[in-house]
Amino acid sequence: MLDKKDLSLYTQIGSGVEGIVYDIGNNNVAKIFNKLDLDKMEKIYELKNLKINNFIFPKEIIINDGLPVGYTMEKINELKTLKKEMFFLSINEKMKYLKKLENNMKKAHQNDIVIVDFNYDNFILSNNELLMVDTDNYTYKKYPTNIYPKLYDFYAYKVENKVTPNLDKFIFTLKLLDSAFDKPVIRYLYNLEDYIERLPIDKETQEFLKMQLSDSKQKEYFNNYFESFKSETRRLKLK
């Protein structure tokens, strides 16, 4: 274990809502949380034993006065996030990386992980691979996520009232369609398959998009999503 006092020797390279990140050398960084969350640290103890290709999991626990306050992880030198790169990619190129994201999602589900947080800033393009960071926010086994689904994700969450791999699949599909249309998919409430046919993408990518809509659970989520949106729109118009 690393002691927090040792971090005074290192350079701070980032900060956010959750905490501060330091470069500690040897191709590693340290993340120190702003406030102590023992439940989350218990989850991190479990996550650091996982090894899944393209996932950046915690490595060592950092302590302060005998309490866990953060962890170390592998440093990624190439900080090209999917969020930034999306502005410069063609639709076919976007789909290439989103297929990689789907493969990573499947690997997560095989290991009792639900991602929940599909923030494109947490997906890093490196050597033609897609790396997954901020893994401490995932739902893992009995340990919940601390990321609450955004409004449109919540429409899916309401169907089962719990976080499941199906929630991931729904959020992923929305992201996929938003990226394909270059606009929020809510603008295409009806005839999604017809719109997919008109997109300037290859046949393989068209089939990939359609496949995401074919699952019965996905359809249930989408119906819930669309009906909730239409109800909210009507409510706003009546004001």
Describe the structure.
The longest helix has 23 residues, at 216-238. The termini are far apart. The chain has helices spanning 38-47, 82-85, 91-110, 151-160, 165-181, 192-198, 203-214, 216-238, and strands at 2-3, 11-15, 19-25, 28-33, 61-64, 67-74, 80-81, 113-114, 123-126, 129-132, 139-140. Helix 3 runs antiparallel to helix 5 (165-181) and helix 4 packs across helix 8 (216-238). The protein has 239 residues and is α+β, with helices and mostly antiparallel strands. A hairpin with a 3-residue loop joins strand 2 (11-15) and strand 3 (19-25). The strands form three sheets. A six-stranded mixed sheet has the order 1-5-6-4-3-2, covered by helices on one side. 43% of the residues lie in helices and 19% in strands. It contains eight helices and eleven strands. The protein is globular and about 60 Å long.
Oligomerization status of the protein chains: single chain
Strand neighbour order, sheet with most strands: 1-5-6-4-3-2
- Name the helicity range: 40-55%
Determine Rg (CA atoms, Å). Answer: 20 Å
Kindly name the structural category.
alpha+beta
Please give the number of β-strands.
11
* Shape, principal axes of CA atoms: globular
The secondary-structure element order is EEEEHEEEHHEEEEHHHHH
- Beta fraction: 15-25%
Main beta-sheet annotation: 6 strands, mixed
Amino-to-carboxy terminus distance = 58 Å
Are there runs of 5+ residues with pLDDT below 50, and where?
Answer: 232-239
Can you count the helices? 8
Overall mean pLDDT score? 78
